[in-house]
Write a structure and sequence with these properties.
The chain is an all-alpha fold. Helices cover about 75% and strands about 0% of the residues. Helix 2 (about 15-40) runs antiparallel to helix 7, helix 5 (about 70-90) crosses helix 7 and helix 6 packs antiparallel against helix 7. InterPro entries: DUF1275 (IPR010699).
Length: about 220
Amino acid sequence: MSTLDVAAGAIRRDETVEIVMLLAFAGGYIDAYTWIIHGVMANAQTANVILLWVYAMAGDWMQALHFAPPILAFTVGIVIAAWLRRAAGDRASALTILVEIVFLITIGILHNRLPNLAGTLGISVVAAMQAAMFVKVEGSVCSTVMITGNMRQSVETIFAVIYGGAPLGTLRKSVIFFALCAVFGCGAAAGAFATKVFPDLALGIPVVALLIVLLRCEATPREVM
């Protein structure tokens, strides 16, 4: 998609910078929350797989199996998102956010009684749905639940402008991806702080962010522009 298309507002509502930044904030937040509360990662299944096998090779199978549920829950979330995409079409993004909100509210309510089931499994499903459904910003592939790919694209874009003769307008893309990394980090910081200060209410913050995303996804094209 060209810069002119972006300037003209010819992008999907769920690919706008505002929405993707809010999702990145929520992504970093819930990953920090899950790590502090449960000692696993909600988003970064690579880390869970590595830790699973590190402990397994050390013979500590109980600790290794601690990392299996979020991996399985993440798989379930991907399946749910894929089904929504097929069943709901253009409404899939908004429905995904609605499901995420319901999950997070339910997790917050059940956390005191069923901490492992509500937290580890529920949040991994939320993370997977977000990872599967929101994969672009202004037409470019991105992630709202981890920063590795976003960092790579930011650096590659700057390199292309300096050494490859890419148009200066390409720098916009680099700035967006750098901002995604920064916002994700801010979300993680906020999640760590809130989880330690008021753990029982900590999930209210990403719920608010997702509510804003839902409203923006449901806005008319005129409102989005």
